[in-house]
Amino acid sequence: MARPTTSELLPERLTEHRAVRAWSRLESESIEPEGIEVLKTGKKSAVYRLVGVGPKGASVIAKRCPLATGLLERMIYEEFLSALPLPALRYYGMVEEPDTGFCWAFLEDARGQEYSTGNREHRELAGRWLGTIHKAAASAVFERHLPGRQPDHYLELLRASRATLVCHLRNPALGEADLLTLRALASYCDLLEAHWSELEGACAGVSPTLVHGDFSMKNVRVATTGAGLALLVFDWEYAGWGVPASDLVQFMGRTLSPDLGSYRTTMNGLMAPLALPDIERLAECGKFFRLLDGISWSALLLVFDSYTFLAKPMSYLRSYEARFAEALRTAPWLR
Questions:
Q1: Which of 28, 127, 221, 262 qualifies as a cystine partner to 258, CB 3.0-4.6 A?
Q2: CA separation for the pair 277, 274 (Å, rounded)
Q3: What is the pLDDT of residues 123-135, one digit of tens each?
Q4: Are 192 and 231 in contact (CB under 8 A)?
Q5: Which domains does the chain have, with CATH numbers?
Q6: How far lies 78's CA from each of 60, 74, 96, 224, 267, in Å?
Q7: How far apart are CA 239 and CA 187, in angstroms?
Q8: Is 0.85 topped by the overall pTM?
Q9: How many helices (H) and strands (E) does the chain have?
Q10: pLDDT of 177 over the 90 cut
């Protein structure tokens, strides 16, 4: 999993750390870790590596998250992934934090090499893994338990995000360059909405399935097993039920860019009506779905306050502006 990136003042006795206390509730004993590595901290989540507390002295990943997220991930790990013929990370369990609406989830630490889109073997592995997941999930009873990821979900994100961007054109803390970014993104949303029926057409007839929602390099490791390479996938907090377009995205940001030929072969009939060019168009749609996810998240961080609180979301939005413009330039309907 991730390398330590965040500093946090740890207690002198590591058994007093909140992640270790939660782990002790799960294991019914107090085990002092050899060390605690802070991987992520934030208002809504925190992730730690507890060194040496797992079986045979292995490290354990401790993740604090909203209870709804923890329950969703637990369902996927315990009820779905564990039943598939794929190597998967061991899910140790979850404990609720009293009276907070949060919980702690504990997972095996993913060890292995980092994924590379420049490695064809990695991309073929990702294509087969994704095909296996999507094919198996299509017959699972997931729909009522997962948030929707059909095109209408992303259209709602587009409209809500655009409204927020337009609202902040009146934000006195933003400079002219920032306002140009907001105007550009709002205009790109207008253009995309005008062609929304074409995205819906590309997604029509595709069987809904389990969508990871953030199928990117930071959420996988490539492990070497006796049977060869295995893809270890984690962080299912953005998972949903719908068309798998966002998981299929090719060469945008740090997406995995799974080999689409390997994906189609593994699906073996579930998407038989779709030729490879159809799947490629689906992946193109996924670019816009991922962009809308990112823009929506960044727009929610905009505030009418000091620029200190605006610098980070605006840096994200500038990045999305460039990607959005490129995606529109290469979209089939604009060629």
A1: 127
A2: 8
A3: 999 999 999 999 8
A4: no
A5: 14-108 (3.30.200), 120-334 (3.90.1200.10)
A6: 17, 6, 17, 23, 23
A7: 29
A8: yes
A9: 9, 10
A10: yes
